[in-house]
Amino acid sequence: MANTWRLLFLRRHGSWDDDRREGWTAYQHRTAHGAIFAENITRHFGPYWSQIALAQYAYDHHIDTLRHVYVVNIQNLYTWPYVESCLYPRHGLQWHEDDRYQCWEYGTREYQELLGTKLGRGVARLVLSAWPRGTHRIEAIITWTYVGTLQMRFDIGRI
Question: How far apart are CA 57 and CA 38, in angstroms?
Fold first, then answer.
């Protein structure tokens, strides 16, 4: 990757649930040739983060150059607990002590489970929006921890 990247930070205050709740929706992404980095996503209303990230990437790069989506410093209350409490223990991995990369290949049970998390579905939505159906897929999902925080990389390839 080149040393050129773009940072986008969008934030909007609003309400949802028929105006019973209010708060902020925020999207923070970086893009560089070949990669999208989702850094801070809080969505209560508005478009999916994948739509914002895809538009940002396409502004600077041809979509066929996209190969990786990184979701960093994950705080998602569905994805993180699943990896920490279910996935890693099932494979004898220690969440806070093991910072090695774990690769979950296409078609495996673990891959399917990760793709079914909120963040996995978001990246799948991005891939389905970016290319015609049946032309690209998420080939592998890589997980690791950095200072006790979950990081994920989704590798995209042409079928």
Answer: 12
List, in order, residues 6 or more apart from 8 with CB less than 8 Å away: 27, 28, 29, 30, 31, 52, 56
DSSP 65: G
CA 27 to chain centre: 12
- What is the maximal distance between C-alpha atoms in the chain? 46
Q: What angle is formed at CA 81 by the lines to CA 86 and CA 128, rounded to 5 degrees?
A: 90
Give Cα separations from 49 to 102, 106, 144 (angstroms).
25, 23, 22
**Cα 153 to Cα 25, 32, 101, distances in angstroms:** 23, 14, 10
pLDDT in tens, 71-98: 999 888 889 899 999 999 999 988 777 7
- Partner residues linked to 149 by β-bridges: 146
pLDDT in tens, 111-155: 999 999 999 999 999 999 999 999 999 999 999 998 888 999 999
Residues spanned by the domain of 62: 5-158
The number of distinct structural domains making up the chain is 1
Distance CA 155, CA 67 (A): 6
Which tokens hold the place of 56? 């940002």
